[in-house]
Amino acid sequence: MNTTKRTSASFSRVPQLWIGLALIALFWPLNWLLDGVRTHLLFFPLWLGYALAVDGFVWLRKGTSLLRRNWRAYAGLFVASAPFWWLFEAVNLRTQNWIYLGEDQIALWLRVVLRTLSFSTVIPAVFGTAELVSTWGWVRRLPKGPVIRPVRPVLVAFFLAGIATFLLLMVWPGIFFPFVWLSVYLMLAAVNATLGYRSLGRRTASGDWRPAVALMLGALICGFF
Questions:
Q1: CA torsion, points 53, 59, 61, 62, in degrees to nearest 10?
Q2: Among 225, 10, 7, CA closest to 121
Q3: Is residue 53 packed enough to be buried (19+ CB in 10 Å), middle (13-18) or exposed (0-12)?
Q4: Which pLDDT tens digit goes with each residue over 84-115?
Q5: 20 neighbors 54 (Cβ within 8 angstroms)
Q6: By CB neighbour count within 10 A (0-12 exposed, 13-18 middle, 19+ buried), where does 127 fall?
Q7: Which of 2, 54, 61, 67 is the most interior residue, by most CB within 10 Å?
Q8: In Å, what is the CA distance from 75 to each residue of 86, 96, 115, 123?
Q9: HEC string for 180-213
Q10: 5 CB-near residues (< 8 Å, 6+ apart)
């Protein structure tokens, strides 16, 4: 009985969970049932709901979450996410691996606004899902892996590998499509670590690959949704 009361109280203190679930419950069926440009209009509220709901589940499991730890930093993820994904849109001008149906029905300025809003949810959704994955028992129990330290030769190798894979992607986009994600990550990871910011390299330096696995699975899960 006491456990039930504690759980109920915990749920009642997670407003982002209920707001997120409400947004999903409303906009998921609308996205499937309506005709026309519904995805362009409904993508942002739907994925905002997903990001908030995931953050709420993380808080329930850990007693902390991205939003609860620092709401300003969490809002900053939305701001950073949009230009980050616009980078991939620029790459897609060459690769042509995805298209947006029905955009001819929307004015150019509105198209840019709606895309930017939609892109703003990518990083919060992926990071939130990755933190949720990190709470899974089998992820927490992963053994130590290879030790990769963010020393200068390694960072240089990462950066050069990122450039090489990006060039391969640009020359043969149909063959090297997976490098869309990997090439950018390698370059950004090298720059990020060189500038002294937090990076996965701080964890792989001790053989701890759990954050890397959680991030990869978080991105994969969001990709399926």
A1: 150
A2: 225
A3: buried
A4: 999 999 999 999 888 887 777 888 899 899 99
A5: yes
A6: buried
A7: 54
A8: 18, 31, 18, 11
A9: HHHHHHHHHHHHHHHCCCCCCHHHHCCCCCHHHH
A10: none
Q: What distance in Å separates the CA atoms of residue 31 and residue 50, rounded to the nearest whole number?
A: 14
Which of 44, 209, 197 lies closest to 125 in space, CA to CA? 44
Measured CA to CA, the distance from residue 46 to residue 39 in angstroms comes to: 9
Residue 128 has pLDDT above 90, yes or no: yes
Pick the closest to residue 56 from 25, 18, 26 (CA basis).
18
Confidence at 2, pLDDT banded by 50, 70, 90: very low
H helix runs in 134-178, sequence order? 137-140, 152-171
Taking the CB of residue 184, how many other CB atoms lie within 10 A of it? Answer: 18
User: Do the Cβ atoms of 120 and 157 come closer than 8 Å?
Assistant: no
Residue 2's CB is within 10 A of a number of other CB atoms, namely: 6
HEC secondary structure over 77-137 = HHHHHHHHHHHHHHHHHHHCCCCCCCHHHCCHHHHHHHHHHHHCCHHHHHHHHHHHHCCCH
Q: How far apart are CA 164 and CA 179, in angstroms?
A: 10
| Average pLDDT of span 49-60 | 96
| DSSP one-letter code for 143 | P
Q: Report the alpha-carbon distance of residue 31 to residue 37 in Å, rounded.
A: 9
Q: Which of 159, 7, 187, 2 is nearest to 84 (CA)?
A: 187
